[in-house]
Amino acid sequence: MEQDFYRDTPEMITSHYAEEYEQYYNAIVPPIFMNSLNVFPEIDDYFDAKVHHKHTYVYGRVQNPTVRILEDKLAALEHGVAAFAFASGMAAATTAVLSVVRTGENIVCIRNAYGPLKNFVEKYCPVHLGTSLTYVKGNDICEFEEAITDCTSLVILESPSSVVFSLQDIEAVCKIAHARGAKVYIDNSFCTPIFSNPLDFGVDIVMHTSSKYLGGHSDVIGGVLAVREETLANTIVANRELFGGIMGPMEAWLVMRGLRTLSVRVKAHEETAMQVAEFLENHPKVDKVYYTGLKSHPQYELVQKQQKGHTGLMTFEIKGTTEEAKKVINSLKVFKIGVSWGGFESLACMPHMRLDEKTCQWLGGRQNLIRIHCGLEGADTLIADLEQALAKI
Ligand SMILES: *Cc1c(COP(=O)(O)O)cnc(C)c1O
Fold first, then answer.
1. Are 111 and 137 in contact (CB under 8 A)?
2. What is the whole-number distance in angstroms between the Cα of residue 90 and the centre of ligand 1?
3. Which of 96, 129, 238, 250 is most buried per CB count within 10 Å?
4. Is 89 in the pocket of ligand 1 (CB under 6 A)?
5. Nearest-CA residue for atom 9 of ligand 1
């Protein structure tokens, strides 16, 4: 059998796979299809068009060629049968929940999941769907044993979580969940498909925000769901059409452009972040560093099992008050203060700053913690910036 070079490696997938060169005059980069509909020679052709079939396009809320190419790449990157692109990470996440969970069922979710998604399953779903919610810390498999019951239909993971970088044993959670008939969802935005492929561990739905590393240039909002099973794929694509949350063609094209360099970018972020994490860990004014690349990570063995790498995001706590941490963050010059991460630029924020002590304890990180994203400006520059800012306290 001939070797399928095109989907052999992530780099080949992001470079060439699914580009359909022959469809588009052999252009090396596919066009942006800025059309809202497609037309047909006869009315029967319109009705016969298999809407979800490859190369059959009817209406832009359902499918678009530029979006489809991106989705084929993402499905291959995540080792899934299909992937679907959405207008935002939250559009993807909420569509996933609403595609699995029914009235009255139970959702199990880790405490450190993405905040807006927790709002959705904690505040919106109980009121509108009568669902119940069980939070778990996530680092102890016995906790999942207890929390997941026959009423549970969905388990929500994020490994590592993007503030305190705690992991869940993905394979073990999937075994427990599947034994009780529940599906497992994971936010894989931190690792990207380059460093982790959770479908291989048994996960049912992998979610990404493409606003972070997949896009990679801080110029696009988008989201992705990848699945390993056809039935769920069909439900999700039908619901996306219903809710109307498809990604726009311009955004799909931008994410595809970002994907071309995903592999080299995440490795560059990782190389920089390793140096920054080691600098911080050895700094006398720093109390604690949360980064999956450090040997001091409390789940280092699990990190080795589940992740091939670590990207550029980490958190640290200073030996000092929240006021002093504010002084540090406000003194940074290269790191800009702002939410988000995954772009070319270095960013810093204090996600727990305005939370009360009890909530901070529940989440497992102090009020004074500073989260930084190490961009592509170079490790020496970033370390010098942190050095001068820490010198202010
Ligand atoms: C930003 C983010 C999201 C949400 O993505 P949007 O594209 O902003 O809707 C979800 N999960 C994580 C971990 C994120 O950082």
1. yes
2. 6
3. 96
4. yes
5. 89
Burial of 337 (0-12, 13-18, 19+ CB in 10 A): exposed
* Residues forming beta bridges with residue 152, ordered by sequence position: 106
302 contacts 249 by C-beta, under 8 angstroms: no
Contacts of 242 (CB under 8 A, 6+ apart): none
Say if ligand 1 is within 6 A of residue 165 CB: no
Share of the chain above pLDDT 90, in %: 94
Burial of 27 (0-12, 13-18, 19+ CB in 10 A): exposed
Taking the CA of residue 92 as reference, the ligand 1 atom at the shortest distance is: 9
What's the whole-number average pLDDT of the chain? 96
- Would you say the CB of residue 223 lies under 6 angstroms from ligand 1? yes
Atom of ligand 1 nearest to the CA of 91: 9
CA of 187 to the centre of ligand 1 (A): 9
Enumerate residues 6+ apart whose C-beta is below 8 A from 358. none
Residue 1 confidence class, pLDDT cut points 50, 70, 90: low
What span, in angstroms and rounded, lies between the C-alpha atoms of 171 and 325?
A: 37
Q: Can you list the alpha helix ranges (DSSP code H) found in 8-64?
A: 10-15, 43-48
What percent helix, strand, coil does the chain show, rounded to 5? 45, 15, 40
* pLDDT beyond 90 at 346: yes
* Residue 133: band (very low, low, confident or very high) from pLDDT cuts 50, 70, 90: very high
- pLDDT band at 65; cut points 50, 70, 90: very high
Per-residue pLDDT, averaged over 386-392, amounts to 98
Mean pLDDT of 149-171: 97
Q: What are phi and psi of 177, to 5 degrees?
A: -65, -45
Amino acid at 217: H
- Cα 47 to averaged position of ligand 1 atoms, centre (Å): 37
Q: Is 161 in the pocket of ligand 1 (CB under 6 A)?
A: no
DSSP annotation of 199 reads: G
